[in-house]
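Hi all, long-time lurker, first post. I run a small reading group and we've been trying to get comfortable going from sequence to structure in the token notation. Rather than ask abstract questions, I figured I'd post a concrete chain and ask someone more experienced to write out its structure so we can walk through it together at our next meeting. Sequence below, copied exactly:
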Amino acid sequence: MFKFSNGVRLLGVALIAGLGACKVPDMALREQTRTVPNKYRFTDDTLDLARMQFQEYFADPYLASLIDTALVKNQELNITNQEILIARNEIRARRGEYLPTVSPAVSIGVDRVPRYTPKGAVEEGVEIRKENEIPNPIPDFFVGAVASWEVDIWRKLRNAKDAAVNRYLASVEGRNFVVTNIVGEIAAEYYELLALDNQLDFINANIALQTRALEVVRIQKEAARLTELAVKRFEAQLLNTQSLQYDVRQRLVETENRINFLTGRYPTPIPRDPQGFNSVDATTVVGGIPSRLLANRADIRQAEYQLKAANLDVAVARARYYPNVGLSAVLGYQAFNPAVLFSTPQSILARLAGDLVAPLVNRNGIIAGFNASNAQQVQAVTQYEQTVLNAYLEVANQFSNVDNLDQKFQLKQQQVAALDRSVEISNDLFRSARADYSEVLFTQREALEARIELNETKLAQLEARVSVYRALGGGWQQ
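-- Answer (accepted) --
Happy to help. Here is the structure in token form:
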């Protein structure tokens, strides 16, 4: 039969009496705001674009292949995968804290009993004591099991485990958010690569055009119809246009290497469709319902899980005001002579003890921890609300950007068409001596600048299309 000692009983009574005078603070709970506007300003579409696979949204097979490679080899993503494993093991550790701990134990010791102590005097006075029957010093041999268990009556340990689960889920959503960003970054860099290819093509076309113009000017100079000044002006413009191609080539190298970095590999040529830039439709963008952001955006769900973990942290901190109830037990064989160590029942040792411990005097650490947990919970609520607001504004900004870029692109197309026609007209007039050579120079320069701006506008349209997909939370649902 196992009994608690009188000291344990008195301690329990004292602690329970002291708890009556302890005031446990209330938790400063706040519910997160989950409301968003019913629709976006620039679209009323109900299609959930974020649910589309990136292979479907980005129809270019070269781009899809690059994204597939990045989802395997990207270093940032692989680092995030390890953070998920760390969080998963935290759950395992927390789960083990509220389960009993049982450990096998073997001990060997020697205990010499002093003569002039109560125990020593009693042993010396025992008449049946024979020489060497109870040696002094007394050896001590033990083989058995030791168990301990903190009884989680306040759910402190289980709430800590649940908080770890929510942090694990938050880490999974963090990985999904990284995937969304990687998909968007690779798509944006790939479209920039196509835009640079296109820009290099029409720079080379302008070089060919200006080369022919320079030949015409030289012929007219030999015929005394123009001066050396005109030749040098045309020659200078040709040299300026030729220099532009090297800037574009450098940007091509840097863009390819940014894609290589995202795909976790050393410099490698990026395969792509040379005509892909002009064939991509940059205007087809739909939005869906804003409330679906709460389900599609991985960073919103990550903030929500972090908020749930913060709520549980407050409950854990509050439970520290209550007493800890613990049980400990020992069961095994103990003897002073190894020859009789396993004698049953003479050598059997059994012990069961209960502990009741609560802070009474110095509780500053518990108070500080509770206040910090409360502040972190309020912070998590604010971060969640900020994440939702930021997500909605990102989508709204990109829809506005898509609409404005569409209008700008149409005007730029008209400008380029007008300047291309003006180049033809100026060349015809120049050949018939009805236009000055400077008009030809200015017209060619304006036409090249306008075509570069048209190319950049088309690139901005494609980047906006990528940004809409990323802002809506697409790309991670594979």
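A couple of things your group might point at:
Residues 1-22, 127-132 have pLDDT under 50 and may be disordered.
The longest strand covers residues 138-151.
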